[in-house]
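Reposting from the mailing list since nobody answered there.

I have sequence plus structure tokens for a pair of proteins and want to know whether others read the tokens the same way I do. The first protein:
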Amino acid sequence: MSAPYEMVVGLEVHIQLLTQSKLFCADATAFGAQPNSQVSAISLAHPGTLPMLNRQAVELAIRLGLALQCDIARHSHFDRKHYFYPDLPKGYQTSQLTEPILTGGWVDTLLGKIPIHHIHLEEDAGKSIHDADPDYSCIDLNRAGMPLLELVTEPAIHSSDAAFAFLTQGETRLGTKVEVKNLNSIRNVKRAIEAEAKRQIELLERGERIVQETRGYNADTNTTTGQREKEEANDYRYFPCPDLPPFTTNEAQIEAIRQAMPALPQQLQHQLTEDWQLPKQDAAVLTEDKAFADYFLDVVGAGAPAKPAANWMLGPVKNWLNEHQGTIEQFPLPPSQIAALITIVQSGKVNFSMAATRLLPDLLQQPSSDVLTRAQALGIIQESDSSELDAWVQEVMARMPDKVKEYQKGKKGLIGLFVGEVKKLSRGKADPQAVTKILEEKLKEA
């Protein structure tokens, strides 16, 4: 009989900071440069060189801490973490062990809050390249010294997709920890967690012991493989870095950073759901990307109501981005044009279907054109003249006398059929609301 299992997962996430220079020297951080072209005596660890802390990296760390409700250390320092690897020139990594800059806090998700254990500043190592030369491994040290934040969650993430809940009467101690390293996509994180959970369950049910170790993930075979037994902190011989003095932050610095921050996604989501009455799912998608959220706010700022603006952003606009694999910065139309499209639909001059399938593609080819002028040129302005609508309604009713009788006997749902036929006859020009009103009057008289 299988015992019950509970999956317990903690995540360690590396976050690269968007500084112009490295964490402890002035080397550039631009992506894609020629190998070993963004290095200096400091990042190459030449004897006698001394590091200097990048102030902007600290400010960005504080900014993240404010966003995630973390406790910000007023006094912090760097430690040396010793290990040998060819792409680590110094033979140690400058990191933080005992006084991380951020502790506590949480990440809000649609499934609830994920608690954070701590977030610390550290430098990245270089990159080993094993497929550039048939006989040798190559080293690119452009990444050496890049500023990183490592976010470590509490072991408080649970999933039932890969395993049963592991429960024993009164048992609260966690099982043996296994670390799966260097996952390069969100999809692979999910697959690796499921694969490792399956492996551990199989070991336990065979009565075997789980070894605390570091494992790698093979996406092709969807399996994890052992790399080395997991080191403890004392294996790295941590001690405070003698070349870097402790650093402090004060309330004035933190408040200045807070005041300079834009609205956080959670704050914007609250505005969209509480003040503008948008569904939570809409608000979550609209705020996934800052540029996308800013564009949406500009559409509303240009006069569009919030709900129609959200519908256009999550419908036609997002469809275009997906089809072109682009970002909102690449979308040809300014927010004012989307607001104008919404206005012309709201006014009843053009129906949504025509606006989305004909008018929008036309405007994408000539973004500065007047929306109403293009709608007239395309011949999609809805006809609201009663005499024209009367004629279309009369013709449709004459074509379907049996349906008219059924409607009059109580099948009121047939009104949609009549409206659809008038729409076809008018080639989309008939205003559906006006047509519905005329039909209801005519069907009573017939």
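The second protein, same order (residues first, tokens after):
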Amino acid sequence: MKEISKLLDFRPDIKVVDATLRDGGLVNDFFFTDEFVKHLYNANLRAGVDYMEFGYRADKEMFDVEKFGPCKFCEDDFLRSIVGENNTDLKIAIMADVGRCNYKEDIHDRSESPVDLVRVATYLHQIPTAVDMIEDAKKKGYEVSCNIMAISTAQESDIKVALDILGKSPVDVFYIVDSFGSLYPEQIARIAALYGEFAEKYGKKLGIHAHDNQKLAFANTIEAVGDGVDWLDATYSSMGRGAGNCAMELLLGFLKNPKYNVYPVLQFIEEHINKLREEGVVWGYDLQYLMTGLLNQHPRTAIQFTKDGRKDFAEFYKEIIAQD
């Protein structure tokens, strides 16, 4: 039974991270207008959001700059064109994806950059490189978090080894990541307890990044809040890869800290997010994403199903269950 105070009171350690541009950028190849990005930045300021993730710091030798918008690369000059010197309480984050980022060259010293937080994304088999990235970012002066992706497919023993290795690194936050949207609140509670053992042992914070394949991203996030997880990812109107993420408007409506204000989020959705939908940008829960979530599969097949405009859901289920 959870302590009721964890749900009705607020913890000053809670941090809300807006991942709209990064996870949402996966559905439109990061082609956001500067106006959209600036308005989102201002909405986050007014809403009291703690961190705003602007996108990836991707390697330009691996990714064609003509095929992606600027939030795929999040160059410091681009960030400054939006936030200036960012003399605000809102901190700026970027994601560095193991194997897709030339971190030694492209992530500059914190004193030369508007970025506050580097979020390292890794799979279990990439942990040694992730640790090197964490150490590199820390030496350069950044806050650092680490997202271990696809943990719903991992063995608990492997997760324990990874957390022990990461615990010995200078990382600040371990993230629980439900990449496939396949986890349930009961599982989140057990995973949070497991992560919590290592967080307590090594003096780290815990975060959660949830996907909405089974319409559980919000439920799993508030479950994690009750389990002592402090860093909470969300996106405006759930905008994110495939089924999307925990909705910012739901999360801020739930959190009791008076510093958060849901009204600017609702305004931004009305004025800017809905326009993206009208322009044909597609994301959010649908049957194809439910199916991959139920089967604990990466949603790439469901994303292709969506791009192809298919509606033969039963046939799609037969196709993907044969791959399971």
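Reply #1 (J.P.):
I read it the same way you do. The first helix runs from residue 5 to 8.
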